[in-house]
Fold each of these.
Amino acid sequence: MDRDLVLLSLMRKYEKEGIECQNALPLSSKSSFKIGGKADLAVFPKNTSELEYVVAYLTDREIPYIIVGNGSNILFEDEGYRGCVIFTEKMNDVKIEGNRIYAGVGTSFTALASKAKAASLTGLEFAYGIPGSVGGAVVMNAGAYGGQTADVLESCDVFDAEKCELYTLTKDEMKLSYRHSVLSENKNLICVGATFTLKEGNKEEIDAVMRDLMQRRISKQPLEYPSAGSVFKRPAPDLFVGKMIEDSGLKGYTVGGAQVSEKHAGFIINVGGATAKDVLGLVEHIQSVIKKNYGVELECEIRRVGTGE
Ligand SMILES: Cc1cc2nc3c(=O)[nH]c(=O)nc-3n(C[C@H](O)[C@H](O)[C@H](O)COP(=O)(O)OP(=O)(O)OC[C@H]3O[C@@H](n4cnc5c(N)ncnc54)[C@H](O)[C@@H]3O)c2cc1C
């Protein structure tokens, strides 16, 4: 069958099941970089059973798909995505029982930190200000200011698209390390929710830590521009990418609308009309300069999504 007809029939099928979807969605509208062409189809499941249904149907028909949380660690390509982008943003239920919190995968990580604070639970302060979803945080083992997801994660509920099964992975089974988990290396594993174990704390003290961390972000990061945060992984615990880029004289270096931030050289910002091609050109330039100056290969932290991924 013609590709457009397959997608149209898919959309009809999902709509009939009451699952929200949209064709030709501009991915720039769902990317913290504000970059990206159109997705053939975008789907917004509200719960795990809708997500299972969507994924099983796509897998059966061998239609490519990708899971997206808040799009804050992704570079969508200019050509867009030929297939289905599944957004988890509507799967955002949160349950607190004692010192344990269950969060649906699309819950904002920052909102989760605020809910923990409201329940006088400490441990998630580091998450306040990370602009991702719970799913993105678990998959990437997001972290900041000395804290990381691995410190508080108890378990992760996973839908295994290959086996068509739902199961729970313990923190140990998640194999979390620096910006890495078993889910980041296996695209068949989709996080649908996560449970965190926190400790009882003092609301005012938690609030003070969160305010301090947010202030540090505002003063050090170019939050006034679209970006996807730090572009490169730290190559070693004692090597700071931002400093290497700054010392190489690359602050302000620009390719098209993509620029190395003057405020934080580890960030590439979209100063206006940047394309994915601009960002990738700038990434390559930085990598070659750092290789020449330090003999270090910088690896991208940001995920590239599209035809060239
Ligand atoms: C201004 C700014 C500041 C930032 N600061 C930090 C920081 O301090 N610390 C930090 O660690 N990061 C930081 N980031 C990067 C980013 O916010 C985190 O990596 C975040 O965890 C990504 O979550 P997300 O929901 O946006 O993931 P997305 O960008 O939507 O996805 C990232 C990857 O995870 C996959 N994925 C997402 N959800 C699922 C799922 N449910 N199941 C399986 N795979 C999934 C996607 O397919 C993709 O490969 C920052 C970004 C910005 C823009």
Amino acid sequence: MSLTFCDSHAHLNDEAFAEDLEGVLAACEKAGIVRIVNVGFDERSSVKALEQAVQHSALAATVGLHPHDASDFSPRTIDFLDSLCAEPKVVAIGETGLDSYYVHSPVEKQKEAFEAHLELAERVQLPVVIHCRDAYSELVETLQAGYQPDHVPWHVHCFSGNARELAELIELDCYFSVGGMVTFKKFGGQELIRAIPAERLLLETDSPYLAPHPRRGRRNDPSLLVYTAEAVAAIRGIELEELSRITDENFNRIFSQV
Ligand SMILES: [Zn+2]
Ligand SMILES: [Zn+2]
């Protein structure tokens, strides 16, 4: 029996796929990548993610404004995203979050936009796709401030914090997706990968970025997810079959509409 995997974070709405989306999706099907969350990062790409998801059954969409572009945020942004949420193919809000590494937008503005996305997600009862870089203590603070035991799922994609930050986010019931970096020779986060509870573990590609070894440096696409899956299974000391089962189950739990 061939294994299946789900890509919890890809940007097939990126220009990089403008020419050959059909071919990429055919390769995904062949590779057992059965479901893909196509992540919006601004208004235009959110609409595109949704259009692609309506056309292709393996895809679902998220709608949000990336922290890089938080300077463009206004209450109108939320009204617009809210209007897209009525579509059944929209399965999450985001990506949103905090990025103090690039700081393309002022931190205060990022925080304002992030909090508004969190509120919208509660209102429409959809999970939140969270991007965070070099801002994990602020992320923990923000999530703690809005914490309610029955909050919608919070999915931290491409986790890059330390062990303490991971533990704090686990306390806040977060899900974590692991991407192609685990396949790099210099990857040093094995302990962190093992520390993620099995019931909170997801896989991602972040296509077209971060292609796994041996495709590093080239365009990433969801059909390459299996390299990451193999690396994660090896690090956690489990069979690939078990990883497939665990991560598919988690994916289905939080992105139930896909
Ligand atoms: Zn991101
Ligand atoms: Zn992303």
